[in-house]
Amino acid sequence: MIRSMTGFGHFEMKDEKCFVRADIRSVNSRGVNVSVSLPEELTPFEADIETLVKSRLKRGNVRVSVEYERAAAPEEYSFNAELIKTYYRELREILTQLGMRKGEIDIGFLLSLPGRVTRSDEARAASSTVRECVLKVVEGALSALEAMREKEGEQIERDLRERAAKIESLLEYLEKRAPDMLEGYRKRLMSRLRKILNEMSIELKPADVARELIIFAEKSDVSEEIMRLRSHLVQLRSTLESNGSVGRKLEFIVQEMFREANTIASKVTESDMLERVVDLKGEIDRLREQVMNVE
Fold first, then answer.
1. How many structural domains comprise the chain?
2. Structure pTM?
3. Looking at the structure, do residues 100 and 159 belong to the same domain, yes or no?
4. What does the pLDDT look like over 143-154, one tens digit per residue?
5. Is 2 within a domain?
6. Domain limits at 90?
7. Same domain, 90 and 52
8. pLDDT tens digits along 198-239
9. For 171-195, b where at least 16 C-beta lie within 10 A, e where not — what string?
């Protein structure tokens, strides 16, 4: 089953402590690019969110937006008053021992010393809980996004298979008409040669005509291109049955199909066949547009 690269996913959780909401949008991209928009207090979890997204999505330009509201903030930080007092006393004694003039010690200096501020156990526990909650909500939004991408992928697959069937029908017509190109060219060649040679009173030699027809037959043979196009259609259908990220492989297959169609166009001479080749290239171009959406 193939998946589209475009989609949207939403998930949210709410309890007496907090509210978390995640929205994830994705559009086409050559690889996977993730941008995360978070409230300031959730920025420590940005790398975790990006890692989670990349573990689930292999292609797409993905934008993650998280909203967070907390009912009541725990007492996150507190001054270690006893430690600050100890610093103060020790510094006063050092100044006395050095014979320096006693004076007030700058409070800013005291507050810059290690250990003067501690984070509460409650705050540490709350941070761990918030991280788990945020990642759980992002996972829920990712699941919703994947479901939408899979649903759109089903529509893309149906269209690709319909295009492939039309291409196969066009190849059957071209294969059937290919031998007639030689007869059509022979008639046009004979008509032109007779007109020219009659004016010049020169006899037309069958060997010369045969040699010219052999050269034309070699140059206009499209059987090899038709065979390769059919092989590419087999690869296309086989890839559609695969799991995982197959978008780049499909792009390569369609690129090769377009190359073969261009070669056929350069060889075909009959007007009705040229019309079918134009249709063929149009169907392949529509294939190319669609596979650009596949993850």
1. 3
2. 0.69
3. no
4. 999 999 999 999
5. no
6. 77-119
7. no
8. 556 555 566 655 565 555 555 657 788 889 999 999 999 999
9. beebeebbeebbeebbeeeeeebee
